[in-house]
Write a structure and sequence with these properties.
By secondary structure, the protein is mainly alpha-helical. Helix 8 packs antiparallel against helix 9 and helix 14 packs antiparallel against helix 15. The radius of gyration is 37 Å and the shape is rod-shaped.
Length: 419
Amino acid sequence: MRNLSKVTALAILMSVSGAAITAPVLAAPDYAKIEERKKAKTKIMGERTGKKVIKAFDLYNEDKVDEAIVLLNEIDPSNDFDKATVNRYLGSMYAQKEKYVEAIKYTKLAAAPDVLNFADQEQTLKLLGDLLIGTQKYQEAKKAYYAWIDFTGDEDPKVYTRIAQANYELKQFKDVFEPADKAISLQKEPNKAPYQLKLGSYFELKNYPKMVEIGEEIVRVWPDDKKAWVSLGKYYLQTEDYKSGLATMEVAYKQGYFDAEVDYKILANFYSLNEIPFKAAATLEKAIKAEKVVRNKQNVSAVASNYHRSKNIELAAKYYEEAAKFDDDAELYRKAGSLLLQSENFNAAVIRLKKALDLGSDKKGTIYSDLAEAYYYQAKYKQAYAAIVKAMDDPRTRKFAKGWSTYIKDKAARNGVKI
């Protein structure tokens, strides 16, 4: 009997990314029975059924799959083996046509009596699992995969990965780890799928330290994986391990692994959390200029705030003002003016402080106090005195303003200015 070679194309069904269900407690496979099955005499179809199946294969190999299915459905096998064999081919062909309801039906019928030759029964059980998981029937899929393990005595990392996937999809997160670990231990070439399933499960269980461990393992196994490095950096935020997070994100940044705005922002955030505000500001500033990070109020404000914390007063003032312009933010204009006052840019400070007043700032006492100081150091004593008088109207600055008013008035008098 010729093999249905094209059906192996059904490997497309293997690309599932879901998971299965709670793992049943399995007895160890009966290896003596398995060996007996393997050595059993090969069964062949009866002549009448075999001839019709050959005709169906000829149609199939001519890409006349629909006609082949019709012919197979017309066969009335005389015994259980012939019936199971025909059902097996029908299941495979329906799967090829992506008619999965029918494919599952006939594949189940083929596997149920357990009369196929060993290799065919093994392939049928695995195909059934693939069809079920591919159609999101995770509970049934897992049963089919464990039936395959029990029948063959084999351990396949792909099968264990799919069992883990089914558990994940069914939100049986604690049951993901055992089959995922089994898959990892059996892999000849590392595959990320079981690692990712463990990672996702630890995240769902809020077990962030374990999530970090898996992230670190992924980086060790795939050191050139850009996303793995960046993701690991983000995981450290969950465990508040800011030093490790910064070290990881710095490596990713220097290697050119960043490809999203959030990556640059997280690096800047790590600098800030590690009390390195200048680098936080400079990193974000550079990314904005390179158009890697959007130039918006929030991001520009972050640059300003970190320059402010690092005592880069003029740069902080510049970016506070830039941020203020997005929506005429009175408070940001006030901050810009206050910092310009600190850097002794008195005239520039006056302009920003007056802008804050014009925009209706609710910190009038503070602004008028700063204005008084800016005018005072420009020897504009009348304007300074007028501003400090207005500062006395605010209970929060009244006491300070009273003391300053006397000082300004005396200074003006000594300089021949009458107030």
